[in-house]
Design a protein that fits this description.
Hypothetical upf0131 protein ytfp, six-stranded mixed sheet
């Protein structure tokens, strides 16, 4: 019987891809990146994954040196209806989610400590700090287990869009293909619709 607290971590950017997420858990260099991830304290593989959607617009902002200096995906703080953002839910322990978040924010795994999943779900969102992804967002339950994601603490709608690197887009494309079964044309249309894709670097 499972006694470890679990949560659905919903990815919408490069973590749509299995190989990319695996590096956050097991450590290593993801395809297309130039820097390794140390991995999580618990390196167990996700217990499950599934395709899902998020009711928030996605855009590319900022600069990710490990991806060649291009933009990276973040969720805006508003809602969209339609179209939804395509995501992939990974069933992790709460501690694994915290370690993924720490690595996304450039902190050592274990820095954040325990995430109060219930409090985030009740509030809808909670800002932990000023890291790149320090805004936790509750997405409601999936099969009676809370689902969370994270994004920029500053509303991405207030930030300039930034074109991602080809490697970043290729990683997202691989995840979209695996999770949602999209063909190349559908993936190209989806990615082209995200603000920042066509922005001059």
């Amino acid at each position: 019987m499972e006694t470890t607290p679990l949560v659905w971590y919903v990815a919408y950017g490069s973590n749509l891809d299995t190989a990319r997420l695996r590096c956050y858990l097991e450590g290593g260099v993801a395809p297309g990146r130039t820097e390794p991830n140390p991995g999580a304290r618990d390196r167990t593989a996700p217990r499950a994954s599934r395709a899902t959607t998020l009711p928030h617009p996605v855009r590319f902002v900022g600069r990710a040196p490990a991806w060649g200096g291009g933009g990276y995906a973040v969720l805006e703080h508003g809602t969209v209806d339609p179209p939804p953002t395509l995501g992939r839910a990974w069933l992790l322990t709460v501690a694994q989610l915290a370690d993924v978040l720490d690595q996304e924010c450039g902190r050592p795994s274990g820095t954040t400590g325990t995430i109060d999943v219930g409090a985030v779900a009740a509030a809808g969102a909670h800002v932990l700090g000023e890291g790149a992804y320090d805004r936790l967002v509750g997405l409601g339950p999936i099969d009676d287990v809370a689902a969370l994601t994270f994004t920029s603490p500053v509303d991405p709608a207030d930030r300039p869009a930034a074109r991602p690197s080809p490697a970043y887009l290729a990683t997202m494309a691989a995840g979209l293909r695996a999770a949602h079964g999209l063909d190349d044309a559908a993936i190209a249309r989806y990615l082209a619709s995200v603000p920042g894709t066509a922005t001059d670097a």
